[in-house]
Design goal:
alpha+beta, 4 helices, disordered C terminus, signal, C-type lectin domain-containing protein, two-stranded antiparallel ribbon, C-type_lectin-like/link_sf, Mannose-Binding Protein A, Chain A, C-type_lectin-like, C-type_lectin/snaclec_domain, 284 residues
């Protein structure tokens, strides 16, 4: 019976680890961090609970060497997550360094990010209400830690001072925003694609449907009939008036009568000549 109860208890712890701590998100943690049971994912950060004990300054140096810093806890939700992680690991160290300090000005607590500490899980008489350590008025208690042996309340302790003040710590790392070839984002909600105007999808490129305007129709303009020249009657060729050409008129010249000498010569030469009339002589 005890064996069964022990098994069930172990099974519940494993179930809580997967549901509460969402171990699947560890792929988003910086690849330099070891993937072991001490690594946890919280929203957009990763927690590494370091078992080795160091002074506050050395613990912070370890975190910074890997690209992070001591954990910053600004609200009860994050505090409870850290407490559950320590419980899940059955943490065997009494003190765990976190990123709070008043080393710059006594009593003015702030985080390693430089932000003022506005919320805390202090034990009564610790931190902002500290009045002294070994009657030294809190002068040397400048660094904050979670006390596992005091219900996970916060206490202020000297940041250094030898092995007596060496404790375990919690480093916090931001998850990278850009993916690398060795990392894969899981359990990330894919945003709904933006709905655009109705589009026609081609083989490779989706373009917004743009209605092609109908070809422009020119107004129905009647083509004028070819111009018809006025019917102009071609005038008949000009006919000159029928003018009778008068016969040439010779002057009426009277032929003088031949004299006797002439007549005698003509009579003697009658061969080859004929008399037409008495008035006219034709010479052969």
């Amino acid at each position: 019976m005890e064996t069964v109860l022990l098994f069930l208890s172990f099974f519940v712890v494993l179930l809580e680890a997967n549901v509460i701590f969402n171990k699947d998100d560890l792929t988003r943690c910086p690849p330099i961090l070891p993937r072991n049971s001490n690594l946890f994912a919280y929203i957009d950060t990763c927690f590494e609970i370091v078992h080795d004990e160091h002074s506050w300054n050395d613990a912070r140096g370890h975190c910074q060497q890997h690209g992070g810093d001591l954990v910053v806890i600004k609200d009860l939700t994050k505090q409870q997550f850290v407490m559950n992680a320590l419980k899940y690991l059955r943490w065997d160290k009494k003190g765990v360094w976190i990123g709070g300090t008043d080393g710059d000005h006594e009593g003015e607590w702030k985080w390693v990010t430089g932000e003022k500490m506005t919320w805390g899980y202090w034990q009564h008489g610790q931190g902002v209400t500290q009045t002294g350590f070994l009657f030294a008025k809190g002068t040397f208690e400048d660094c904050a830690q979670i006390r596992v042996d005091d219900s996970y309340k916060w206490h202020d302790f000297p940041c250094s001072g030898g092995p007596a003040y060496h404790y375990s710590s919690i480093c916090e790392y931001k998850m990278p925003k850009l993916l690398t070839s060795s990392t894969t984002i899981t359990n990330v909600e894919t945003p709904v694609p933006t709905t655009m105007a109705k589009t026609e999808t081609s083989a490779a490129t989706t373009l917004a449907k743009i209605e092609t305007p109908a070809p422009t129709v020119l107004p129905n303009v009647e083509t004028p009939a070819p111009t018809v020249l006025p019917n102009v009657e071609t005038p008949a060729p000009t006919v000159l008036p029928n003018v009778e050409t008068p016969a040439p008129t010779l002057p009426n010249v009277e032929t003088p009568a031949p004299n006797k000498d002439t007549s005698t010569r003509m009579n003697s030469n009658t061969q080859g000549a004929g008399i037409v009339n008495k008035d006219t002589v034709v010479i052969g």
